Amino acid sequence: MPCHRADDEAVAILAHALEIGDRGEVDERPGLRQPQPGTLRVGTINVAAPFRGKTFVRRVSELRFETDYYVEFLVTPSTMLAEQTARALDHAKPFAHIAGPGTAADASWVLDGFASALYADLRETGKPAAELDITYYLAPALRSERTPVWSHEYREQVPMRDVSAAAYAEALNKAFGEIVAELARDLATAKLPAH
After folding, report:
1. For residues 34 and 80, what is the distance between their CA atoms, to the nearest angstrom?
2. Which pTM does this prediction carry?
3. Residue 2 within a domain
4. pLDDT at 101 over 80
5. CB-side exposure of 155: number of CA atoms within 13 Å?
6. Which domain holds residue 132?
7. Is residue 97 situated within a structural domain?
C-alpha cells in the first residue's frame, strides 16, 4: 500500500481496517437461534462514486469532500466490504452455510449491498467521526430476476479520537463491526419466504 506518512501506527491500523472476524466483535449464533437453512452467498457491495476509490475521503462541509492521496485502503472499499461482510457472517452463522464473494457455491440466497457513505466527517470542529452507511439486500439465488425479499439500511457514526488516518481507521472499523453484528442478528431472525 503506498503510504507516504511516517506514522507506522496508521499503516498498521490501515492494514487491518474493517477486519473484525478474528476479534469476536460479531456474536456467534446471535440470540442462540437455529441458523437459517441453506447457503448464503455474499455478492457485490457497491460503493457510491465519491467513496469508491482506495483513497480516504474527508467531508469538510455540507457539499465539499476531499480525498487524502497519501493514505489509502489496501484494496477497493467494495472488495473490502464484501469480503469482511462474508467473514463476519461466517463467524456469526445466521445461515447454515456462508459463501464468500466470487465463490461458485450453490447458494440459496445472495446478499448484495450498497454503501452510500464511507468517509471521515470533519464538518464539526473538534468532533470528527467516521461515517458508514450500508444497505443490504437479500434475494433468492436461484431465480433469474433476483428481486430482493429483504433489505435494511445500517448507519453508524463513530467519534474519532483525532483527525489522523489511524483514528479514522479505528472508528471505521468500529462502525463496520456494529453494522455487521446487527446485520447478523437481523438475518438470523428474518422471516424469509420458502423457495
Report:
1. 28
2. 0.84
3. no
4. yes
5. 3
6. 8-18+37-188
7. yes
